[in-house]
Amino acid sequence: MAETEEELLLAGGDADANMDHIDEEKLLADEDPNFNPFQVKQEELDLFDAAIEPSGVDKDVPLVTTPAVISTPTPPSSASSSLGITTNAGITFSNSAANIANITGKKYCCYIGNMSWWTTDDDLVKVITSCGVDDLVDLKFYENRLNGQSKGFCLAVFLTDLSVRTITEKLPLKPVHGQTLVVLSYSKISLARLEEASAKSQTRIEQQKKAKEENGMLNMGTIRIGAMGITPMGPGGPLGPPVQQQPPPMMNMAMMGQRPPMGVQMGGPMMGGGAMVGRPGGPGGPMNPQQQMIIPQTRILPGGMVQMGGPPPQMGPGGGMRPGVGPGGPQMNQPPPGMGQRGPMGGAPPPSGPPQPLMGRPVAAPPNVGGAGFPAGAHINPNVYPGYGQQQEAPLDAAEVEEVMNRNRTISSSAISRAISDATSGNHADAIETLLTAISLIKQSRVAHDERCKLLISSLHDTLSGIEAKMKERKRERRDRSRSRSRERKHRRRLSILPPLNGISVGGTTIDNLEITVA
Amino acid sequence: MSTGQQGSLRPTGWLETGQTALGSSIPSQKPNIVDKIPLHRSVNLYPLTNYTFGTKDAQPEPDHSVSARFQRLRDEYEKFGMRRSVDAVLIVHEHSLPHVLLLQIGSTFFKLPGGELLHGEDEISGMKRILNEILGRTDGLKNEWHIEDEVGNWWRPNFDPPRYPYIAAHITRPKEQTKLLLVQLPSKTLFAVPKNLKLVAAPLFELFDNSNAYGPVISSLPMALSRFNFVYKD
Question: Which residue intervals are annotated with compositional bias (Basic residues) in the record (chain A) (predicted)?
Answer without folding.
Answer: 486-495
